[in-house]
Task: structure prediction
Amino acid sequence: MKHGEKNIIFGLYDDEEDLKSAVRKANEDHLQIMDVLTPFPVHGLDPLLGLSESRIHIGGFVYGMLGTLTAFLGMTWIFTRDWPQIYGGKPYWPILSFVPITFELTVLFASIGMVVTFYIINGQGPGIVNPIIHPSITDDKFCIAFNTNDMESNQVDRYRQFFHNTGASLVETKTI
Amino acid sequence: MGSGPTSPIREPLIRGHKTYHQITEDLCSPTERAPNRAWTLAFIVALSALTFGVICIIITIWVGIGTWRLNRTIGWGWDITNFVWWIGIGHAGTLISAILLLFRQKWRTGVNRAAEAMTIFAVICAALFPAIHVGRIWVVFYFFPYPNTRGPLWPNFNSPLLWDLFAISTYFTVSLLFWYTGLVPDFATVRDRAKGFRKKMYTFLAFGWTGAAKHWQRHESLSLVLAGLATPLVLSVHTIVSFDFATSVIPGWHTTIFPPYFVAGAIFSGFAMVQTLMVITRKVLNLQEYITIAHIESMNKVILVTGTIVGVAYLTELFIAWYSGYVYEQFAFFNRALGPYWWAYFGMMTCNVLSPQLFWSKKIRRNVTMTFFMSIFVNIGMWFERFVIIATTLARDYLPSSWSFYVPSIVEIGIYVGTLGIFSTFYLIFVRVAPVVAIAEIKHILKSAGDQYATSNAKTTVQQVESGTLELQVDGHDSHHGHH
Result:
């Protein structure tokens, strides 16, 4: 097996309610889920999987503040220290005039920063290809996948039994 | 927002008893089949207009701004009229995507993808005008504040014209990011159905999206924050555009009503353009079950509200001109109604004030043909509004000896036609390449807004919950609360 490759067993469900019941059952049986993949965000799934809240908005705030400081301090330095000029009798440091550009740059830095961060932490981006477990996942099927690296075949059968009991419409093993 | 009580009185937003797979089929197939005759014909017309526009732009840059019939005192004519018109149109897309997301209006999912695309193309058309109207476009980089060898010479941060530069660049970038963020999962859907070259193309465009739960969680969080950032952009960008006029000293321009008046007008004209596009798109691509009459009606309600605000703004301007006792302001409006451009003023009043009032009638609001013609009227009316504000006012400002008249040259008209061509060309390409309706978002609302689940079919109704016959399922940590 190549480095980073995983052996997985996955099951596809036809409905998100079946998926959520299956995840609850997996939690009850103490089965370690590798990943759950869905065609759209499923309400109520995150707490079942024990996913902590995303902190991307904190990043957004920090990037935004960076934009605010860049704009405001930049304009302040330009207009008061580097080349002060008198425009229409306005003061050298026209704070209110700086508001529109400061606001725009805050939004710009926050947006670009957050979006770039989002793709980096997801492991996605232009030209990046991630293994696709099953093409129906982006269509109408909901997937639970377990990692079966270094597992005996009777352990894998436990997973197979789990999928059978929870009503999965398709069960397959794969190497990704 | 997918699960939860569904109201028995809300109109369904997805018709045809769709399954998730049917949604995928219906919304991906326009990108998978060859273009039909209507598309090809429209594309040829759009491309011709674009070409004519490009030729006119080349003439403008090569020969000079003298090819435009601008003169003293009318320094801004069709160029800035078109700029404000296009930017105004762009605002509807962001409002539908961002503001309706924050207000949890599910109906936005039928139209948000196309509207956001419309915004991006409209902003491209708009940005063209400030770029070419400067005359020396080859030194347009002078506007950007970067350390240079000219002093360093910096731009004037007091000027709304510079604020515009930042506002529009930011608006374009954020809209593009927001639109593309939503498109990535849908491109993944198309990718997983594609073969050959198309598969390679969509694999690249889908950025490696897999649909993992954690990724969806981050995606929702990102969309919510981007929506929160884009919302003040809608307000600020058009406010800054209004400042191009309001911070001057020209009577008829120097009024504090401009910011809210322009923002309302932008939403007004933007929604009208969305209606024009949606009425055609849903017919040609057979998407009436996703872009339903409910969607058309909701957008018409917005048009009615913003049109009324614009009408009230017109009346306020007239009232304040009289009440202020300032003769130049009073003359400015006297001139608009009865001066050399009176026909533009009456066109504006009829199209913007009178015609949207027809939407008080539910029958008219839900009539697709009426909606289409109304949307054209509103767009024409809003073009006249910008023309009246700019050319009429500049033709008759303070000093009678400076009064002049303005008629556009063929080059200016050609550039405008060219932007219509650019916009249409981009939109037609968009329709072929990307799903016009947000696939993942529609699937997300199917269980609560699909017609087999909603209205009288609603399994969980508020009544049942309140009467205690059914437990409302609330998961421990409501991480999706406040979204969609």
Chain B touches chain A through 74 residues (CB under 8 Å). Confidence is low (pLDDT under 50) at residues 472-484 of chain B. Chain B has 16 helices and no strands. The first helix of chain B runs from residue 20 to 32.
